[in-house]
Design a protein that fits this description.
With 174 residues, the chain is of the alpha/beta class. Helix content is 55%, strand content 13%. Bound molecules: adenosine-5'-triphosphate (ATP), (3R,4S,5R)-3,4,5-trihydroxycyclohex-1-ENE-1-carboxylic acid and magnesium ion. It is an enzyme of class 2 (transferase).
């Protein structure tokens, strides 16, 4: 079976839905942000603050290429992993790409108390989410084979919804 690759904005549920999905399909779960942090030996947040976004994107590109070349898994990607065209090619080559879609308003409800996500540590995080959505929604759509709207359902329902789409699309056979 090929990898299942989850893309979406911060808070869209890639890590939480991804873990449930991995259990269901019997693949290991990998979070590219965690792999990056292991390589760095520090948090993404600290690295961002110290070295800037471009250095982070270079490392992210390398890690995504390495993971795509590795064994099949359910891969939760960083929210900005679709920004570089090379990464979009890498993700599509790695497996079936699923976009977990959520509105900026829904994401704000989930993340309003969060302090870990560097792109939201700004004066107006709600505007930041709206801007990220406007910039990235077309890129997530471009890379994705499947799009799942995550606005209302619980995490366990979402796992079922993703499974259903994958099954109907023949993605669970290879
Ligand atoms: N469908 C949902 N309904 C309600 N809460 C959700 C849903 N999906 C995720 N959450 C919650 O939103 C928060 C963010 O989810 P999660 O960490 O899985 O997002 P993510 O896409 O991995 O974000 P990041 O890109 O920053 O790693 C968590 O507290 C999670 O429990
Ligand atoms: O949306 C983004 O650009 C990011 C999301 C996180 O998953 C991390 O990959 C990092 O904080 C950057
Ligand atoms: Mg995550």
């Amino acid at each position: 079976m090929r990898s299942l690759v989850l893309v979406g904005l911060p808070g869209s549920g890639k890590s939480t839905v991804g873990r449930g999905l991995a259990r269901r399909v019997g693949l290991p779960f990998t979070d590219s942000d965690h792999v990056i942090e292991q390589r760095l030996g520090c948090s993404i947040r600290d690295f961002f603050a110290r070295e800037g976004e471009s250095a982070f994107r270079d490392l992210e590109q390398q890690v995504l290429a390495d993971l795509a070349a590795g064994p099949a898994c359910v891969l939760a990607t960083g929210g900005g992993s679709v920004l570089r065209p090379a990464n979009r090619d890498t993700l599509r080559a790695a497996g079936h790409v699923v976009y977990l879609r959520a509105s900026p308003e829904e994401l704000w409800r989930r993340l309003r108390n969060d302090t870990k996500r560097p792109l939201l540590q700004v004066a107006d995080p709600q505007k930041a989410l709206r801007d990220l959505f406007a910039q990235r929604d077309p890129l997530y759509r471009e890379v994705a084979e499947f799009i799942v709207d995550t606005g209302r359902p619980s995490v366990s329902t979402l796992v079922n919804m993703v499974m259903m789409q994958l099954e109907l699309g023949g993605a669970l056979n290879g």
